[in-house]
Amino acid sequence: MDSYLTPGGTQRSHLEIKRSRFITTISNVANKHQAIQLINSLHQEMPDANHHCWAMIAGKPADNNQHHQCDDGEPRGTAGKPMLNVLQHSGIGNIVAVVTRYFGGIKLGSGGLVRAYTQAVTEALKTLDTQLTYTKSEVLIALPYTAFDSFEYWIRKSNIQVTDKTFAESILLTLQVPESEAAQLRAEVARLQGRMIQQQA
């Protein structure tokens, strides 16, 4: 998968169910550490709330290792899990959703809580601004000077980005390469008698 949707920024929505207030904050996060920082900031911003339940996909949508959730004191499985389920079906990555609950005095029961947290995230996603994020790997290549012009001409027709150039015995180029173009890059570098030095996801 070369690209996937991510949140365009941080967004907040509100929902009231039986006098309980549910405040949903959704944000773009690069990793779990960044998501935890946001969650902690919401604890500080709204310290009088009863719960700050959350779910995140802190990477590509299909990367299950980046899926995490927390009920934050609600009965087990009634908040974080249904929130994560909504995110998993959204196809959006690099996302954290935090639902802050102010208890209104009326208990919702386990089924009611599942419905409430599901609805809170579902409604928030309906108005979420998204952007397309491309999956790329960092690649370092070496080219002979005689091949540089030809390579520059070829790369202008691709979605590969040059992020650094070093002129030494050969020309060292650091590239950001979409997964779908990695094979073409290897073939072009070989054709120009260059070499791949390293690749980092």
Describe this structure in words.
With 201 residues, this protein is α+β, with helices and mostly antiparallel strands. The chain folds into two domains: 3-132, 2-Layer Sandwich (Ribosomal Protein S5, domain 2); 135-200, Alpha-Beta Plaits (2-Layer Sandwich). Helix content is 30%, strand content 37%. The protein contains five helices and eleven strands; from the N terminus they run E-E-E-H-E-E-H-E-H-E-E-H-E-E-H-E. The strands form three sheets. A five-stranded antiparallel sheet has the order 2-3-6-4-5, with helices on both faces. The chain has a four-stranded antiparallel sheet with strand order 9-10-8-11, covered by helices on one side. The model has no long low-confidence stretch (mean pLDDT 94).
Query: What fold name stands as the CATH topology of the largest domain?
Result: Ribosomal Protein S5, domain 2
Instruction: Kindly state the number of beta strands.
Output: 11
Terminal-residue CA separation: 14 Å
Number of domains: 2
What class do helices, strands and sheet pairing give? alpha+beta
**Which bin fits the share of residues in helices?**
25-40%
Task: Give me the CATH architecture of the largest domain, please.
Answer: 2-Layer Sandwich
**DSSP summary: helix tally:** 5
- The CATH superfamily of the largest domain is identified as Impact, N-terminal domain
| H/E topology pattern | EEEHEEHEHEEHEEHE
> Which ranges are low-confidence, i.e. pLDDT below 50, for 5 or more consecutive residues?
none
Concise synopsis of the structure shown:
This protein is α+β, with helices and mostly antiparallel strands. 30% of the residues lie in helices and 37% in strands.
